Structure formats: structure tokens, C-alpha cells
Amino acid sequence: MAQAFESMSCERDGRVAELELGRRCQEHTETIPIYPESLLKYGRGDRIRQQHDQGYSRDHFEFYVITFDEHHPPLCYVRDRRSRNGIRVNGQHIGDPERITPGHCLLDGDVITVPGQPSRDVNVSEFIPCMTFHFKQDYVSLYVPSPIQQREMDFFAGRFNVTDRALGNGAHARVFLAIEVATKRQVVCKIMNVDRLRVRVDGATTLRRWKQEIDMVKQLHHPNIISYVHAIYSPHTLSVELSSIK
């Protein structure tokens, strides 16, 4: 799969994704390529992308890319940089005037909007977007869940929506990006294959160690340590949801 990903990137001059940018009061759109290790900053203080909208902060937000290894496509993120009005991803507000927000991992089809000046219509309370980005990224899922795993994911889909975006994999576990339905926040879902352990001599010991590790993570509370959210155990799978750190 790594070779397939590399060939796809070369065909598109090395870019890993694209942003289609539309600005208020402009009919045409602009295509912005994103390359490995890209860092695209937007703000009124940026001479290249200067804006004069009152809702646009001097150092507003940025897009950046992280590549974990050669076997997984790069991940593209957006985050707010202590702006006044924040940004929105698929309508969900992201922003904190007191701190730079954690990065939000982007998926193909995501829409990022930047609030502009408030509407002059007294009946409209929403900000009018001054910029709208459509995120585009060709992505082929590296892993397909087994029929049993898919049924289990469907069972708890009301609480967590596990995407097909793989973040990592090991001998007995795979890590996916997931969305907590109630809060819309992104979490990391680690799916461990219990069935595969049964054919191992040390399977019972390994499963016990996994559960001990989960119990240990439950007790940890530190801003620099990934935190426990939820765990689901079945005879076939052990799924753990953890908050993500970017």
C-alpha cells in the first residue's frame, strides 16, 4: 500500500491534498495544493494572504501536515490560533481566544469556514463566512474490518462513529480516527483482535495485559498524556476510545 500511495502522490506533483478556496464577493475559486510538511498560515498579519474583514484576526488559523510513517498517508490538520471568532469545520465551531486549539484532522469532503463580519440584517445572528475551504484528499482505506468487527462498530455507532481513516496498525491491533457523536470531537479508536489471540499460547496473558493497560490509562489525568474516553469489550474485539493529541 505504501508504493500505491507514493505513485498516487507523484502523479499529482507530490501533493497530498488540496484546498478549494472561495472568498466572499468573488465568483472564482482558488485551488491550493498541500504538500508533505506543509504549513499554511492565514491572518491579517500575513502579507501573502492579507484580509481586511473585521472578523479576520491578525493570526487566525493554520493548516499543517503530519506524516507518521511511509505506510500511512499524511494527515492534514487545521487549528485555530487564538482568533476572536474562531473557525468552523462542517459547521462545528473550533476556537479559543485564550489558547491555540488542538488540531482537527481533516477528511475528504470537509468544509472549513472562516466567520467574517456580523450580518447587517438584525434578524440574522450568524456571521457571514469571509472564506470557505473545501478539503479534498484521495484516500483508499488501508484496512477493512471483518464482518464481526463491522457489526460491533454498527452496534455502538450511536456513541462513536469509527471512520476508515487508519492511523496505525500492529500485530493484533489497528488504530482508527473516530468521532464521538454527542460532542463531535475526534478521538482515537484502538481495535484489538481478541479472536487472533486465541491461537497463541500466550493469548490469555496478552489479553490480561491489555486490560491492565486500559485500567492504568483510566487513572491518568495529564494534559500531555492521551486520556481514556471509553472501552468496549466483546468475545471477539476489545475497542478502546482515547482522546487524541496533536
UniProtKB/TrEMBL annotation:
<feature type="domain" description="FHA">
    <location>
        <begin position="19"/>
        <end position="94"/>
    </location>
</feature>
<dbReference type="GO" id="GO:0004672">
    <property type="term" value="F:protein kinase activity"/>
</dbReference>
<feature type="binding site">
    <location>
        <position position="190"/>
    </location>
    <ligand>
        <name>ATP</name>
    </ligand>
</feature>
<comment type="similarity">
    <text>Belongs to the protein kinase superfamily. CAMK Ser/Thr protein kinase family. CHEK2 subfamily.</text>
</comment>
<dbReference type="Pfam" id="PF00069">
    <property type="entry name" value="Pkinase"/>
</dbReference>
<protein>
    <recommendedName>
        <fullName>Protein kinase domain-containing protein</fullName>
    </recommendedName>
</protein>
<dbReference type="InterPro" id="IPR017441">
    <property type="entry name" value="Protein_kinase_ATP_BS"/>
</dbReference>
<keyword id="KW-0067">ATP-binding</keyword>
<dbReference type="InterPro" id="IPR000719">
    <property type="entry name" value="Prot_kinase_dom"/>
</dbReference>
<dbReference type="Pfam" id="PF00498">
    <property type="entry name" value="FHA"/>
</dbReference>
<feature type="domain" description="Protein kinase">
    <location>
        <begin position="161"/>
        <end position="246"/>
    </location>
</feature>
<dbReference type="GO" id="GO:0005524">
    <property type="term" value="F:ATP binding"/>
</dbReference>
<keyword id="KW-0547">Nucleotide-binding</keyword>
<dbReference type="InterPro" id="IPR008984">
    <property type="entry name" value="SMAD_FHA_dom_sf"/>
</dbReference>
<dbReference type="InterPro" id="IPR000253">
    <property type="entry name" value="FHA_dom"/>
</dbReference>
<dbReference type="InterPro" id="IPR011009">
    <property type="entry name" value="Kinase-like_dom_sf"/>
</dbReference>
